[in-house]
Each structure stands twice: as structure tokens, then as C-alpha cells.
Amino acid sequence: MKCEKCGTEIRQKAKFCPSCGNPIDWKEKPKKKMSKKMKTLIVLVFVLGIGDIVYTKLPKTVNLHDYTTTCKVKGYNGFGTVSIDCKWDKFTIDLAKYLKQKNKDMSESEVQSLVDRTDWDISASKEKGLSNGDVVKVKYDFDKNYLKEYGIVFKGATQKINVKNLKKVKKVDIFDGLELKYSGEGPTIQTNDYITIKKNGQKFECSVTPSSDLQVGDEVTVKYEGDKPVKGIYPKSKTVKLKVPKDLPHIITDPSELTKEDIDKIKEVANKIFKYQAPYTDIFEAWGDKSLIFNEDDREEAYNSKLISPSISDDMFFFAGDDIYKGTFSAAAVKCSANVKIGDEESSFYNKQVKCVVYCVIGPIKRDKDGKIKFEVPNDENDMDMYGSEFYRDGDGSDGNANANEAIKSNWSEDANSGTIYKVSVSGKSKPEVVEQISDDETYDTDEEEY
């Protein structure tokens, strides 16, 4: 023991210091207590040491909520949309940092490879067409333990969004008073395939289908192509069906459209053709091998002076279809009869009266914009295919009626790709009756020699 005052070594049991005389107290003094700061420092060092061990062993939990922006619902009531954006850049940066912290020996390329292969997604139970009061569930799609072996796990609980405060929508009838613009004549009438409708100061883009090859009475559909309101305005209905107006010019393809006035006009024209009267004096069509009048001069003579007791019967054929030469076409064949005095000296019927059955053919039959039927007198002989008359002898063992009936149907069948032949009552006492359907496999071969 040393003297507390001078530091001289003191002999055991001495009561005073031999050097300075300072009294010596041999009683044991209490140990000095450790300060609170020292204790805190020691604990902190211990915790940090253990914490580092724990951090490297326990997995890091990555909450995917931290990488999505606030889910927003906006728009108009009934048409609301939800938007969800992900902070992909921040996610990849943080994930790389966490992987490096958990796996200190991992190279940068290995870290980047794991980051690139980590995939997760977020979706809403309903993304559009939302109304106030709807509840949208936002769900995370991920593999919780995909990176667990590298000390990373994921979490992301489903969220619920209550839809509210969407703007009010005003619904209007955008098709009210709509009239389409048409061009051409049926059945090749056309209209615009897209139109812009202006209502309440806004524009609505609409499609029109079909928009070509239209006949009067056909139905077209006009459809609003948008899927959301235009500045708060939305159609009451997205579609409307309109019919092509019947007062447009068109080829008549349905004989039931013919009125009594129409049929009377057809009979009048047929009578002029039959009697060789203007403006049909240049038409000399005599079809078929069964015709008794082959020479054009003889036909003119017969038309001019040899028709005896001509009459028009109650029978008429009507053709509507696709003609090889003219496309969509229609024609009427009015049945007539008369006695003909044969002036051909080489004929066995020379200078005799022979009863004949005739079909006077008129076509195309069109309805003009004034509502009346219209006949175009052909100026070119190539346009005369559907005009003219054909004589068949009746009596003396041959059936002129049967020959004429079959011949007119045969001629139409040969010159048509497809179509329908009707039998029509000239008096209007009965409805049109389908007597023959012409299909592609029955068509005339245009490469064959014409007679």
C-alpha cells in the first residue's frame, strides 16, 4: 500500500507514513460505480453486434405497397376509370440494395440478374365503367418466397377503393333527326361509311354499315364508336337502324313493289313493242330456233302490217337477278298473242294466217326519283338484249304457249349468274309467284358462241 499523500510505500500495520506522517487508514474502500453512459455504451455495442448477426440471418420483407402510387378513380359516373402506377425504377434500385446487403459476397452481375428476373403485378377487379358506390379491389400478384433463399420476402395485401365523386353524365339522343346522304341508284346505292354527328355542341364519330351496294328498303346500322362521354354528354343509345328511303332511284328487283299504275305502263310499252310503234321501231329481237320469223326484213314486215287481232293476256314473267352482261338487272316479259300472215314464199305457211304467242320483253325496270317507273329506250344494239319480242306458232300440233314460256325462262337462265323468275298477274288479281330460281351452276357459258 502507498501513502495517499506522498506515495511512499507503507509497511503493513503502520499507522502513519514514515515520510510525511500522514495517518494511514487500513479499512477497504468501496469500488467506484460505473456511470450510466458507460453502461448504455456497453449495451449498445452488444446490441449492434448481435443485431448485425440477426440482420444477416433474418429475411428482409419488401412491402409492394411502397412501390405503387395512390390508386385514383376519375371520369364520369358510369364511365369511371381506375389508374394504378408502379414505381418500377425505385423498386429495382431498392431490391438491388437489399440483395447486396443480405449477400455481401454476391457480384453486381448476379444482383442485377436476380433483379431482372423478379416479377410482380398489380390489378384492379374493375378498371373502367365505374359508377359512384362501386368498390374496386386492388390485388397484388407475386411469389412471396421467390427470393427467400437470398434473404428477401415480399408482401402486398389487397386494397379496397370506394368509388365516389365521379361527374354526372347527360344523355342525349344523338340520332334524333338523322338523315344519311345517299348516291347512286339501287341496288348499288352508297353512303358514307363514317359520319360525324353534332349534338349539344359536341361531335360524335359514328360508323355506318353496310354503306355500299344498297337497295331501297335495306337496313343500315349507325353506331357511335366512342366508349366514353364527350365533355359530359353520352348517347342514350349507341346504335340506330335506318332504312334506305324508298323514294331513291332504283332498279325494281321485287315484283310485289309494282303498282297497278306501274303494270299498266309496262303493258303500254309492251303493246308498242308488239305493234312496232315508236319509240320502239328499231327493236327487232326474235330469239330462239322456234321463231317463225328469222329475216330482219320479214320481221319488220310482220310488225308493220301482218299482226291480226293483237291482244295482251293476263300473264307476265318478271326477272330479277345478276345478269352476265349488265350486273344487277330486272325485266318484264308481257305475254301477247296475234295472228300473223306469213309473207315468206319459201315458208310452208306462205300467205296463211298463223296464230302466234309472243312475249314482249322490257328491261331494266327502274323507279325514278319522282316515284314513277322509267324505261330507257336503248340507243345501241348491244343494249337491246332485254328488249324485243319472240313469236311462237300456236296450233297445228305444236304448243305455242308452252314453247314461249320455256323459251323466255331459258333465255333469262342462260344470261344470268343468279336470280329469280316470277309469274306476275297483269290484272293484279294474285300475288307474284316464284317459278324458277337461277343459281351459278345453271349459268350460261359466256365463252360459247352466241346465237
Provide a descriptive summary of the structure in words.
Helices cover 19% and strands 30% of the residues. The protein is built from six helices and 24 strands. It has a six-stranded antiparallel beta sheet. Strands 11-12-13-15 form a four-stranded antiparallel beta sheet, with no helix packed on it. A hairpin with a 7-residue loop joins strand 23 and strand 24. Helix 2 packs across helix 3. The C terminus is likely disordered.
Strand order of the largest sheet: 22-19-18-17-23-24
Helix share of residues?
10-25%
Largest sheet: 6 strands, antiparallel
| Number of DSSP-assigned strands | 24
Query: What value does the average pLDDT take?
Result: 77
Q: What's the helix count?
A: 6
Strand content: 25-35%
Rounded to the nearest angstrom, the radius of gyration is 52 Å
Distance between the termini: 153 Å
> Would you tell me the structural class of the helices and strands?
alpha+beta
Order of helices and strands: HEEEHHEEEEEEEEEEEEEHHEEEEEEHEE
Low-confidence segments, given as residue ranges, are 282-299, 380-387, 394-400, 442-451
Shape: rod-shaped
